[in-house]
Design brief:
The protein has 288 residues and is α/β, with parallel strands linked by helices. The protein is 37% helix and 17% strand. The protein has one domain: Alpha/Beta hydrolase fold, catalytic domain (Rossmann fold), CATH 3.40.50. Helix 1 packs parallel to helix 10. Keywords: Hydrolase.
Length: 288
């Protein structure tokens, strides 16, 4: 693992080869990977429940990083990041803000998937001047429909994955149609492309603490999203079982400057199933 602050990356480095770096943030070590150009507004990527650095889709990261700096980070207590996993989204947002500041950035774009989308919303509500544009995928607002039920929805599919010797994301993130099954297989194969310097697996303790934070977000009072004037791209599959797709529609309705994209015959991992279309849309949004 390389210990360092920002730059030092080349646009020709691919996600599977990007070095894992670390930075001390108020006494806690956070691991991250950075690739793409060394200048420009960085895109900070915040991932889902149970995700380490190795759960970011290589195809999405590589294609985004061909045009701009991209930085992914493991939350506190996740993967090789130090400390104990927070029990609230608010704490994760505070950590992310401190991480961004420690790397020396005054303005960033955010891409939050699922849990990462909760965190991204909290970041922009707390530090609006820090954020330029936001991409919210497979996610929903505080108090959103079914978010407090992510655990009960997920456990049977996690068990199904164990019984069928498949990664549970095969069932959690994708539809059971032929298209969904093909997309799931391709996505899970991509996650195996990186062979060396992989992040540490998440512990069960951290996994369950994150679930408590998700449940708390689902039970939390609605936030006033009308104060978020930044441009927002909301994307999801039209059949998300984990964070029901109606939440994406609700986000787009309540955010004053939002655009909604729903991918057909796609679940929670709609951006992975339609990664080429998603990256094209994301780059148009970020560059627009």
């Amino acid at each position: 693992m390389t210990k360092s602050h920002p730059p030092q990356t080349s646009s020709i480095i691919m996600w599977k080869d990007a070095p894992t770096r670390s930075v001390d943030v108020a006494g806690t070590t956070f691991v991250y990977r950075r690739l793409g150009p060394t200048s420009g507004i960085p895109l900070i990527m915040l991932n889902h429940w149970g995700a380490t650095l190795d759960n970011f889709d290589p195809r999405i990261v590589d294609d985004l990083a061909a045009a701009r700096p991209v930085i992914s980070v493991s939350y506190r207590g996740i993967g090789a990041s130090g400390g104990k996993a927070p029990l609230t989204v608010a704490e994760m947002a505070d950590d992310a803000i401190a991480f961004i500041r420690e790397l020396g950035f005054e303005k960033v774009d955010l891409l939050g998937f699922s849990l990462g989308g909760f965190v991204a919303q909290d970041i922009v509500l707390k530090e609006p001047d820090l954020v330029r544009k936001i991409i919210l995928t497979g996610t929903g607002p505080a108090g959103g429909k079914g978010i407090d039920k992510v655990g009960p929805t997920s456990w049977p599919l996690i068990l199904k994955g164990m019984l069928t010797f498949r990664d549970p994301k095969f069932y959690l993130f994708f539809t059971s149609t032929a298209n969904g099954r093909r997309a799931a297989t391709a996505f899970l194969d991509r996650l195996k492309e990186r062979k060396a310097d992989r992040d540490k697996p998440i512990t069960m303790t951290a996994f369950l603490r994150q679930l408590k934070a998700i449940r708390a977000w689902g039970k939390q009072a609605r936030q006033d999203l009308s104060t978020i004037r930044k441009p927002v791209l909301v994307a999801n599959g039209d059949q998300d079982k984990m964070v029901p797709s109606s939440n994406s529609i609700d986000l787009a309705r309540r955010l004053p400057n939002a655009e909604l994209v729903l991918y057909e015959d796609a679940g929670h991992g709609g951006i992975f199933q339609y990664h080429e279309a998603f990256v094209k849309k994301a780059l148009e949004f970020l560059d627009g």
